[in-house]
Write a structure and sequence with these properties.
- This protein is an alpha/beta fold.
- The protein contains 11 helices and 17 strands.
- The strands form 4 sheets. Strands 3, 4, 5, 8, 9, 16 and 17 form a 7-stranded mixed beta sheet that branches.
- Helix 4 crosses helix 5 and helix 4 crosses helix 9.
- The protein binds zinc ion (2 copies).
- One zinc ion binds next to helix 3.
Length: 332
């Protein structure tokens, strides 16, 4: 099969790899689409040559392991799958937090091979059935699940005023869910005019341009979706007494905060990553119900040959939202 693999100098090359075969508990999917994620943009710079990235995918089941077949899985089903394997039995797995399992294997970010490939192997336990009518929009289940998990971490309540720092794909998914979970006001702050201009499509009631002055204050909830130094402090400063701050941005360098303001307001700060199966399934249901318009998330599609150019474009500008890689479809 064809796959877009990382080269030793962190570019991409379309290579020929053996088609995956299912272990007993697995499915093999013919990939319909796989989104490019901000974490791919970060990870591709340090993962070794040969790595196949891609963790936001959907596709048609083309092979079923024996155990998966006993559980009712059949060829032809259209599915999205959580891009991870875990033991399924420990307290973290049973409690809905498979990403904290000791056997956790993140797919497409250095663990099992990802879905920038014609075929991908996935654990059947991670898969959720989709209506084939969704087509490649099924690749949005994963990023929407990130948004739901993050919004839930904020314990958002009806009537809340919420701030979202960062209007990229994570911010857009978080805004979508904050509104659905009852926030009446969602202000999205982003330096990019393109992102501010489209924020209302994802539920934002107002936008803020950091170039025009400090963030407004007094929010019940502030969600940091960027991962750059200074923004945890900005989120703390933006909430009122007993405010909740959720950090979903992945900052890889030291980031200083002055606790005083947070102490005086008794701010609750939480960090959020991944999602549980229920959140993944809820995101699939949201798409199925038409609760989000996939076309506002997806700005374009590329074939496997276009992955390198797509990464360069996403790293250089913020005019694209989600770019979908469609390994089995010619893109012109
Ligand atoms: Zn992702
Ligand atoms: Zn486990």
């Amino acid at each position: 099969m064809r796959a877009a693999a990382l080269t030793v100098d962190h570019g991409f090359a379309v290579v020929d790899l053996p088609e995956p075969t299912p272990s007993p508990a697995d499915l093999v999917l013919r990939v319909a689409a796989c989104g490019i994620c901000g974490s791919d943009l970060k990870a591709h710079a340090f993962l070794p040559g040969g790595t196949v990235l891609g963790h936001e995918y959907c596709g048609e089941v083309v092979a079923v392991g024996a155990e998966a077949g006993e559980q009712g899985w059949r060829e032809g089903a259209f599915v999205a799958a959580m891009p991870l394997a875990s033991c399924g039995r420990c307290r973290w797995c049973v409690g809905g937090h498979p990403n904290h399992c000791a056997a956790f294997d993140p797919q497409g970010v250095g663990g099992a091979p990802g879905a920038f490939a014609e075929y991908v192997r996935v654990p059947a336990a991670s898969a959720v059935r989709l209506d084939p009518v969704l087509g490649d929009a099924g690749a949005l289940v994963e990023p929407l699940a990130v948004g739901l998990h993050t919004a839930r971490a904020a314990d958002v309540r009806p009537g809340d005023r919420a701030l979202v720092i960062g209007g990229g794909n994570v911010g857009a998914a978080v805004s979508t869910w904050l509104r659905r979970l009852g926030a009446t006001e969602v202000v999205v702050s982003d330096p990019s005019a393109t992102r501010r201009d489209s924020a209302h499509l994802f539920g934002a009631t107002d936008v803020h341009d950091p170039a025009e002055g400090p963030l407004p204050g007094g929010f019940d909830v502030a969600v940091e979706c960027v991962g750059a130094p200074g923004l945890v402090q900005a989120a703390i400063d933006a909430v009122g007494p007993l405010g909740r701050v959720v950090v979903a941005g992945v900052c890889t360098v030291p980031d200083e905060i002055v606790p005083l303001g947070a102490v005086l307001k008794e701010v609750e700060v939480r960090f959020a990553v991944y999602y549980g199966f229920d959140e993944f399934a809820a995101s699939a249901a949201l798409l199925a119900d038409g609760g989000v318009d996939p076309s506002v998330f997806v700005t374009r599609r590329v074939g496997l040959d276009g992955v390198g150019d797509a990464f360069r474009a996403l790293l250089a500008t913020s005019t694209d939202r989600k770019i979908l890689v469609t390994p089995n479809t010619e893109v012109r």
